[in-house]
Design a protein that fits this description.
33% strand; 9-stranded antiparallel sheet; 27% helix; globular; Dna Ligase, domain 1; 8-stranded antiparallel barrel; alpha+beta; Rossmann fold; D-amino Acid Aminotransferase, Chain A, domain 1
Length: 671
């Protein structure tokens, strides 16, 4: 086995590779840009080499700088992670020419399968079912419209060298095909240095199911079961699981065998993934092959007991795979939630800033449940605009799917992230949805379930009571603490503290509480209902509260103190909760309501980013849906459009300007 490994990547995947390499006794080398000087992967590695400025083109995408770092440190092998240079055949070729081992497939396999146009042609020649489409190069937007009409709307416009949802658009008509082609081409050039685009039929009601492969240099290729990745937003996977709740054993076997046959046809080695689109009748169609480790590989590891990074390293060292197809396990169920620095209340637009608090749930594994968190950040670290907004990948495992979902819901409730917008509340909300729990998934799930965007979870009645009970107990704990400080303790007997009123969303809930013992057992009465008994664990200053209800149910709530109450985040809901005495509650309806200012005449920048272009000038009359400007953030272009007919009275920004969230870009006046 080689003794020193360079990881040509950053973030959580660099940290993930470093962990396995260290366990195997392999020394590790990190590379970093200006923006990543203090990054976690730099701290974890045995050595670190600075390779350039913050933009990826000047650092992580520089083949020469990566090879120079190998020579400087004596690294004998390179693991590319995912993204960046991981599917670039020129990178693998340059490493081979320099006598450095590439921990990935052969150059010819990358060329054949890494290019989505070529891979589809090869798949069709190999007899693999493929989605109808146009695999040739497309010259311009006019030709894209003609081809889209021939294929038949809706169509998927995709970057040939794409991955991770970049350079992908769905078009339902000519206008969307034209705009989608231009945006996909621009994103592809920016993210991959390759602006080739192709078009294929978009299968309606589809499920995205992929087969994980591992192959060695001795002709052995195994499929390690499947992952379902149907919960997607902007073609970016958000929640993944293994196995799929939709496949039966026969379909799994057929998909796995086709994936293996395709890999063998191109001499594939190392880890790779064959992605399929599956319709409601379990017909499956080849989409593409990712010639690298996938973001969602942890769920496969959790159900198979295998370490895919270790297998990749051993294969790169020329070793034979240590198991056969018959020995591949499918044990239990695993879920993965991708935690992103993006604001779900602003249509999931990217968020940047410092992580003022970052406290993941504790990682552990038992026969009943496991929690795993793959991350590349730390408390106090910075989320920049230069790279993908992923913060962490939270994974859970349990014997059954519903148990894995419940474990994920609890882990998400316990995950603390402050300082940047994040999608924790959205992930929690999905875990509670009946449709998700029943496994009725499609790639359109988010658009179908949240057609007006995400506005927070609406808690069922029982959980509203849990929040009210927690708030009342916290208030009484605070009152006890005040009494102790003033040397007038309230006592810990079965004394009735009187009736409190908890106000949630304008609703008033009256509660009576008894403390049954000093350790935190309480009896609660909601109006005239039967009393409930709960054990409550919280103290002033803590940000996590835990309730264990009599009968076994448990709740985890994130808590922050505020005037006359608490901010409580639980199960996807973000609530401002007041706790007051009855006489104060009676006066609350008389309080005036603050009216927010009218901002409808301004176009505000929805996220931190850079202006790509401005399409209007002062005096222009714009119509509803007209493109006003394009802002790029974290490698994604966001098109900003007019919401109604108006006249442009002032333009505050120019192309190239770097903007903060909510910065005024354009002012309007009525026509």
């Amino acid at each position: 086995m080689f003794s020193k490994l360079l990881i040509a990547n950053r973030g959580e995947i660099a940290c993930r590779v470093i962990k396995t390499a260290k366990r195997m006794g392999i020394a590790t080398v990190a590379v970093y840009s200006d923006a990543d000087r203090e990054a976690l992967h730099v701290r974890m590695a045995d050595e670190a080499v600075h390779i350039g400025a913050s933009p990826a083109k000047e650092s992580y995408l520089s083949i020469d700088k990566i090879i120079a770092a190998c020579r400087e440190t004596g690294a004998e092998a390179v693991h590319p992670g995912y993204g960046f240079l991981s599917e670039n055949p020129k990178f693998a070729e340059a490493l081979e020419a320099a006598g450095i081992i590439f921990v990935g497939p052969p150059v010819k396999a990358i060329e054949a399968m890494g290019d989505k146009i070529t891979s589809k042609k090869l798949a069709a020649e190999a007899g693999v079912s493929t989605v109808p489409g146009h695999m040739g190069l497309i010259a311009d937007a006019d030709e894209a419209v003609i081809i889209a009409r021939q294929v038949g709307y809706p169509v998927m416009i995709k970057a040939s060298a794409g991955g991770g949802g970049k350079g992908m658009r769905i078009a339902w008509d000519d206008a969307e095909a034209r705009e989608g082609f231009e945006r996909s081409k621009s994103e592809a050039a920016s993210s991959f240095g390759d602006d080739r685009i192709f078009i294929e039929k978009f299968v309606t009601q589809p499920r995205h199911i992929e087969i994980q492969l591992i192959g060695d240099q001795h002709g052995n290729v195994l499929y390690l079961n499947e992952r379902e990745c149907s919960i997607q937003r902007r073609n970016q996977k958000v929640i993944e699981e293994a196995p799929s709740p939709f496949l039966d054993a026969a379909t799994r076997k057929a998909m796995g065998e086709q994936a293996v046959a395709l890999a063998k046809a191109v001499g594939y080695t190392s880890a790779g993934t064959v992605e399929f689109i599956v319709d409601g009748e379990r017909n499956f169609y080849f989409l593409e092959m990712n010639t690298r480790l996938q973001v969602e590989h942890p769920v496969t590891e959790l159900i198979t007991g295998l370490d895919l990074v270790e297998l990749m390293l051993r294969v790169a060292n020329g070793e034979v795979l240590p198991l056969t197809q018959e020995q591949v396990q499918l044990n239990g169920w695993a879920m993965e939630s991708r935690l992103y620095a993006e604001d779900p209340y602003r249509n999931f637009l990217p968020s940047t800033g410092r992580l003022t608090r970052y406290r993941p749930p504790e990682e552990f594994a038992s026969d009943a449940v496991a929690v795993r968190n793959d991350t590349g950040v730390f408390e106090g670290g910075e989320i920049s605009t230069f790279y993908d907004p992923m913060i962490a990948k939270l994974c859970t495992w349990a014997p059954t799917r519903l148990e894995a979902i419940d474990a994920m819901a609890t882990a998400l409730d316990a995950f603390e992230v402050e300082g940047v917008g994040n999608n924790l509340p959205f992930l929690s909300t999905v875990m509670d949805q009946e449709r998700f729990r029943e496994g009725r998934l499609t790639t359109g799930y988010i658009a179908e379930e949240f057609p007006e965007g995400f506005t927070g979870a609406a808690l069922p009645r029982g959980r509203v009571f849990e929040v009210a009970a927690a708030a009342a107990m916290m208030q009484l704990v605070v009152e006890e603490r005040k009494g102790q400080v003033s040397r007038a303790p309230l006592g810990h007997s079965t004394e009735v503290y009187g009736e409190w009123v908890v106000v949630i969303g304008g609703e008033q809930i009256a509660l009576k509480l008894h403390r049954l013992d000093p350790e935190g057992t309480w009896e609660l009465n909601l109006f005239n209902q039967t009393a409930a008994v709960a054990r409550f664990d919280w103290a002033p200053g803590r940000t996590i509260a835990r309730i264990e209800w009599e009968g076994g149910a448990a709740s985890v709530l994130k808590v922050n103190a505020m005037t006359s109450g608490f901010r409580i985040r639980y199960s996807g809901a973000d609530l401002k909760v007041m706790v007051v005495r009855q006489h104060i509650a009676a006066l609350l309806p008389l309080m005036p309501v603050k009216v927010p200012p009218d901002m409808s005449r301004f176009l505000l920048c929805p996220m931190p980013g850079q202006v790509v272009r401005v399409d209007v000038v002062e005096g222009d009359i714009v119509e509803d849906g007209q493109v006003l400007a394009i802002v790029e953030a974290m490698k994604m272009e966001n098109v900003l459009k007019a919401e109604k007919r108006a006249r442009v009275s002032k333009v505050h920004v120019v192309a190239g300007a770097v903007l903060a969230v909510d910065q005024v870009m354009i002012e309007f006046e009525a026509v």
